[in-house]
Amino acid sequence: TQTTIAVKKSKNEELKQVLFIAMVPDETDLHGDTTSVEEVSKACHNFNMHCRKANLFHLVETDTFSIVESYIAPVDFVLGEKIVKAGTWLVNLQVHTEDVWQLVKSGDINGVSISALAKVSKIE
């Protein structure tokens, strides 16, 4: 069996775009929570329909980058040397400033946060 590895980013130096994983279904996140593939899909679609606002470090809306793609992986695929499983929410950002691009390249910006409210159920 293959091990799924969460991909933090894939950079395209010429376009100043960076692809991040927003949520991986059925894996425990940094807060100890697990989200089903159905709920990840609902979160992505809700974001795409109602929000699509870029924030930098959760502080303010920003024009330093744009969200150019936000989608659910339809199948398992390999990105670089990492396996991205079907149902994963990916976000592609277009960076507009050199300052923010340097933060991406240095790893100071190394992911995205969905900054969402959720109903949590304890699973035994």
Overview in brief:
The protein has two helices and eight strands, in the order E-E-H-E-E-E-E-E-E-H. By secondary structure, it is an alpha+beta fold.
Number of helices: 2
Radius of gyration: 15 Å
Shape: globular
Mean pLDDT: 81
As a percent range, the share of strand residues is 25-35%
Quaternary organisation? single chain
Beta-strand segment tally: 8
Q: Note the run of SSEs as H and E.
A: EEHEEEEEEH
Which strands sit side by side, in order, in the main sheet?
Answer: 1-2-8-5
Distance between the termini: 26 Å
- Portion in helices: 10-25%
Low-confidence stretches: 1-7
Q: How does the major sheet shape up? A: 4 strands, antiparallel
Tell me the structural class. Answer: alpha+beta
From the structure above, extract its key features.
124 residues; alpha+beta; 4-stranded antiparallel sheet; two-stranded antiparallel ribbon; 2 helices
